[in-house]
């Protein structure tokens, strides 16, 4: 079973690597990183490089797509090659999914038209403008449409575990969770807009603007 994870300049590392760490634990799943061309792309802050192992043309029939987000998605929504590729491969995928602002690409390709979906909280308005209906949930499923979206960054791990359950079975997902020792116990209760206080939101906005 092939899972394609697209990469592009200014991708958020954990959006791609979080699901990868879950999915690659399953022996029946092969993960391939795809992009416009083979070779390195740099993450949104430029500090980390990730490698595309195949071009979009070389991966024409993946079983699953996991589209990560990042600052680079703001330009990528106008990229015809990625949108056409998504439209093409989605016809035959078991699931087409996104993490964070990767949802903007699914929406730009017309895959979220009229559907509820989630993304990073800072991109909610952009997602709505592209035809989806943002909801502040961690993972949103439309199984009959074979679409799953995950909220910001770390939520991709949750989505990937759910994908393993859907693709294989619950024990496989639980085994993957154990293998990565995923047992969240965050030291602070500020992981969503609903939980964060005003000072935390202000600092988060300050940091976010410095990366744009």
From TrEMBL:
Residue stretches making up the DJ-1/PfpI domain: 2-165
One GO process term, biological-process aspect: regulation of DNA-templated transcription
Basic and acidic residues: bias regions: 198-212
Pfam families hit by this protein: DJ-1_PfpI
Entries under InterPro entries matching the protein: Class_I_gatase-like (IPR029062), DJ-1/PfpI (IPR002818), INH-QAR (IPR052158)
Annotated region described as Disordered, given as residue ranges: 191-212
Entry protein name: Thiamine biosynthesis protein ThiJ
